[in-house]
Design goal:
mainly alpha; 6 helices; 2 strands; 3% strand
Length: 148
């Protein structure tokens, strides 16, 4: 739920800043870029920090090799994508890459829900709720990719 809150809060605050006169943030797509960047910065940190990292490693489907390396690589890609979203010249490419990354990582969320794993001591998000959030996240990336 924290990623969804980060997306909504980051987008809303950026849009309010745009309405308050910060011209670089004037518009919904640029605000959405900021919100998605905040969300990915937040989720990327979990790839490198203690109990959350261990939980993410456990979420990797067992058939995949080197789950520790996969978690590290996806965390780095999320950070690069978050920065890319903030730069107008790379925002569309970053949104496309992050959209594909989310689709590629979704099976890990399905696997974790089916195996009833925990993340930092709390049950992973139930599959229905996680699927709905994933649709919102991919839709945000798609809006950035194809937006004005």
């Amino acid at each position: 739920m924290a990623p969804l809150i980060a997306l909504i809060a980051g987008t809303a605050l950026a849009r309010l800043a745009g309405l308050a006169g910060i011209s670089a943030l004037d518009g919904w797509i640029v605000a959405l870029r900021v919100g998605l960047a905040v969300m990915f910065a937040l989720t990327a940190v979990a790839h490198f920090a203690g109990r959350r990292r261990a939980g993410l490693i456990a979420m990797v489907p067992p058939r995949l090799p080197r789950p520790d390396l996969l978690v590290t690589v996806t965390g780095v890609l999320e950070l690069i994508g978050a920065v890319g979203l903030l730069l107008p010249a790379t925002a569309r490419v970053a949104a496309a890459g992050l959209g594909l990354l989310m689709l590629a990582m979704f099976p890990a969320n399905v696997s974790a829900a089916r195996r009833q794993l925990t993340l930092a001591g709390r049950p992973v998000t139930p599959l229905g709720q996680r699927t709905a959030m994933q649709v919102v996240f991919v839709a945000a990336a798609t809006a950035i990719l194809f937006g004005p």
